[in-house]
Amino acid sequence: MSLNTFGHLFRVTTWGESHGPALGCTVDGCPPGVPVTAEELQHWLDKRKPGQNKYTTQRREADEVEILSGVFEGVTTGTPVQLMIRNTDQRSKDYGDIAEKFRPGHADITYWQKYGIRDYRGGGRSSARETAARVAAGGLARNALARLVPGLSIKGFMVSMGERAADPARYDMAEIDRNPFWTPDARAAADWAGYLDDLRKSGNSVGAVIEVVATGAPAGLGAPVYGKLDTDLAAAMMSINAVKGVEIGDGFAAARLTGEQNADEIAMSQGGPVYSSNHAGGILGGISTGQDIVVRFAVKPTSSILKPRKTITKSGEETEIITKGRHDPCVGIRAVPVGEAMMACVLLDHILLHRGQVGEGLPGKIG
Amino acid sequence: MSLNTFGHLFRVTTWGESHGPALGCTVDGCPPGVPVTAEELQHWLDKRKPGQNKYTTQRREADEVEILSGVFEGVTTGTPVQLMIRNTDQRSKDYGDIAEKFRPGHADITYWQKYGIRDYRGGGRSSARETAARVAAGGLARNALARLVPGLSIKGFMVSMGERAADPARYDMAEIDRNPFWTPDARAAADWAGYLDDLRKSGNSVGAVIEVVATGAPAGLGAPVYGKLDTDLAAAMMSINAVKGVEIGDGFAAARLTGEQNADEIAMSQGGPVYSSNHAGGILGGISTGQDIVVRFAVKPTSSILKPRKTITKSGEETEIITKGRHDPCVGIRAVPVGEAMMACVLLDHILLHRGQVGEGLPGKIG
Amino acid sequence: MSLNTFGHLFRVTTWGESHGPALGCTVDGCPPGVPVTAEELQHWLDKRKPGQNKYTTQRREADEVEILSGVFEGVTTGTPVQLMIRNTDQRSKDYGDIAEKFRPGHADITYWQKYGIRDYRGGGRSSARETAARVAAGGLARNALARLVPGLSIKGFMVSMGERAADPARYDMAEIDRNPFWTPDARAAADWAGYLDDLRKSGNSVGAVIEVVATGAPAGLGAPVYGKLDTDLAAAMMSINAVKGVEIGDGFAAARLTGEQNADEIAMSQGGPVYSSNHAGGILGGISTGQDIVVRFAVKPTSSILKPRKTITKSGEETEIITKGRHDPCVGIRAVPVGEAMMACVLLDHILLHRGQVGEGLPGKIG
Amino acid sequence: MSLNTFGHLFRVTTWGESHGPALGCTVDGCPPGVPVTAEELQHWLDKRKPGQNKYTTQRREADEVEILSGVFEGVTTGTPVQLMIRNTDQRSKDYGDIAEKFRPGHADITYWQKYGIRDYRGGGRSSARETAARVAAGGLARNALARLVPGLSIKGFMVSMGERAADPARYDMAEIDRNPFWTPDARAAADWAGYLDDLRKSGNSVGAVIEVVATGAPAGLGAPVYGKLDTDLAAAMMSINAVKGVEIGDGFAAARLTGEQNADEIAMSQGGPVYSSNHAGGILGGISTGQDIVVRFAVKPTSSILKPRKTITKSGEETEIITKGRHDPCVGIRAVPVGEAMMACVLLDHILLHRGQVGEGLPGKIG
Asked: Where along this sequence does the record place binding of NADP(+) (chains A, B, C, D) (predicted)?
């Protein structure tokens, strides 16, 4: 991973700012022969799109993706795929105050210090709008995965909002797409609706924890020791705006266990090894086991709030700021499809990497 | 980061197995003119060295580092620095059982499946012994940092062992080097001593959480959006053996806050911006703020334990395994200097990267 | 360099096909604060643009470049710069025959074999049209160089067409922009005009040799041993369509010299070392000396000709092919601005790389 | 390719100086399961080894290679392979003069200027001794190729020494290993023997041109547009010490041809496409055709000669230098096995890359 590109063989370079004419990504290394249409990619972009309900920013963006290269007669050609999304709703007047003042907890100040120039309109490059390009790339990755690993599925969902956690005992995966929070716990969804509404009205925001699970991923993915599957997943998730923590499997809870408790015992089935549990989140030594791959990440609350906070201006004067405009009270909601997209990109990348370095399939047979 | 190399400009490639003739690292991109001796590097290796007390593996390794290239007349030349450590205590007979059986929770099975060949002696490449090379590279990075950023200091310490957490209210940084657990909480150290002794005697192991703090790092480090400072720190820490989670600043706790609570308010001092708090862990939008850079990572308990666990053999037969030999009851202890080394490497890398892409200093003045 | 990206820190990823909706490049790593306008980039694109005289393809393309990201208020922000060029003249009917038959000497057959799918319209990704994106990136690199190395100039010119070589004794650099062949030898230009006209009318094509010279580049550029300045220049030039050979300085002629003849003797002037000659082309051990950097590359004749050639179809039948449509009788002409662009990109990249790894200026003083 | 590493998936990082304790390479990405012994690698190193006859430097080096990692029970494990060669004959007193004076035509001056510190003993990192590590890596690549592409062979040979060219009409490939110049033209070998002897006695040196041919390489290798097979070969060869030019197929001669002459016409055989000629050197559009892959490179004469040349000292005084010590009168001779090694590494790398990005075999069938 480097700078604005991620991936080893499936390489995604995103570009564009919140309020520039367009944003997008250049996807290099997509295998040839993958069927893909703009409509299919649009499906995933619509999931991330702002303004869909009162819990996300009211900015109106069609987020229409165009395929500008790399696809011919409906399939990828093995050359770079350019995916572009025009920005249409650019009310830059909303952001006038931010040109001079830095939002506490926001990248405003660090971008300014680092670069000496900053597109302050809507956060410029530091805006979560950049993640639209990731979702487009993730859609392409999904299509490639569908050909390479039939049966693989990737699902993201919210497991807690602020202090309020969903209860795994109530999880129903079919519920995820039925509520605005992408949570499998219907009761939590009901609870969060009122909670977030109050926060939104008071001009505040709140953090969230997202989980992404890949089911049906093959064993053998991951390139120790610095291209481990969990290393790349950690980087992928941490690179998402506002993410402050990443866990694999039991994560921080594993640090509280003994070795006896943490061992996922192994038995043998007709299809190969089976495990008694999945504390490891499907990854051992940086290589996938064939179990569910489980990643969780923590999203901090957005710093664009109506509550006045102390800050300074570019000229160094102390002042206060409140951020008007259209913002997400819980950016974690829209991070769900982004996390799914990153999972898709990382898995595809490692499938290609394994194929390149080792070949098709697994050379180490068991039984 | 890719495969066995990490870093963008300060690139460290580690090589070697637990029971091969040697292990080490090739460091490419160290700036020229950095004074360094083998003795200085040895200081850091000694900190990680096994067999120093009853809480770490009793394997006896001198862990003597040799500088084979890239240093002339006591300073680096700008060419690759090869650091080699001979393995001396290779009692491979201890590992006979592991050649056929897979330890639950260990990389044994995934390495076998992925590669079809595996150096089972001591875990081969998946052994935490690989981290000795990281510590050597980290020592070199520290010397380079000392020239480039006088006053920068990096300190790692243990913040919890199993369920037992140290108490920040009791932290005394001078205490860290006085106890075998590298914890700043003397009372926790006393408590953990008995706790771990019991675990060790019962043949069990336990997880831990490590924190690494860099003080005095300049603002402006980090290359959004996929070479963010926190992205690279997350990857660096997650790549360490047994790590299952990484947090920056408040990490998962930030997900429980509101935007009002999480904002680190900004005021102006003579030296530039100052912050009322450091929820962000010194990183905003992937770029350092100049505050302390705070990373925490969770280490799972080692899977090499004397407690019998159900598993299978390479030929697919179900069986039980207990792992004799010399193992760390809490690998988190020796992960402390490793975490420090990774922090040093990442910071140096980003200092070089910033200098290359932007130049010396920060173009964006405040005040 | 890898796949569709070149450069270490100044990284250019090109995308797009000859007859797709658009092509362009994503430039990652351009330093912040570089003034740039679309008009300035257009200047260089116009130089490469087809259809300017009877010696280049009659395809009509405005080759208008749009800056979609990374530039704010007229200067670069340090974030990715997206440069897009819409394709407008896409007469794909001209290419019907090529969908089934392979042009001898063309990438038609290898793209088909490698990928199993191929955008045959105008050569798709293998078309020299891809180089428009390089020229755009080169224009941006020139603006950055103008700030970082005032006085640096880059000039490309044609030194031979087919068997007919220009004569260095007649070189007048002011002449280059006055003839359609970008040659400094006015007499050669006159000679080539008739020669190429005859070739064009007969439906044939011819090769050429291009030289690119950078004057005023600082000493110290180049990262031995695999990021040498000449290594990267060789890769950059060889990656241009139809290029079959690259030389630095005396190149192949140096292989005919003795060590005594080839040594560029060194004397001392007020400004530093001065050399009696420049057999080395300004590069020793992969690092620039401060002299002119001299690169030459050989461009083969285009394979799209009206002369019938024996070939096969996708279904394996033997047949003949003549390539109608609009083609360059000497693609070497339009390779001149492309070679300049690659030189600009490589030099900027190495200036950033040197700054990152070593710092500003040269630590090794002489005198 | 970057800095001291080359390759995309088969990545070779070389390290070490001429007169340090050792040199070697870290090979990351070698597929698992490749049988290899130190003896097999030694075979290739012996071919490059100095002091074998009066035409190469009289430095005595055993050049014994040790495998320190990545190989277990005689086969590669998929983890990094460390290959180390101890330097034994380090008569550094021979080089005293060079510590202060710069050899004209040598990297002495540029290394000094760039880094401000330089291991002047034997040229340090700029010494051709670095290529021993490449030859070791090339030997490993050959073993991997033998498994992946049975029947592939790589052969390098000298085609001219100074002004004196071998005659292709007299080529007998069996002759190559019978003369000290690795030339297939026995008459040229006899001629060069006397010629080089005279040059050697007079303290002079001379350049050479080397050709490397790979027979039996599959079609489909190469990753357009910046990881083209010819791009990577050009970079690989240009990175070898003293190389000033690289050609693919007809190379510069192709620039003198018309399109009609240069087209390699295609017919159909049972085994697939066959070509009437190979002007292209087996590469079209950066992708291999399945024909012989033909690369030539020009090696300048060494600058370490007994003829006095004008130069300056580090303190800027003008002086003369003659280089005593043990030097190759024609470094081109020992560049032959180095060129072969680079070809092996590049081909293996592209076989892995193709497998990763496209899969096994060629999706585009003909006939």
From this structure: 48, 54
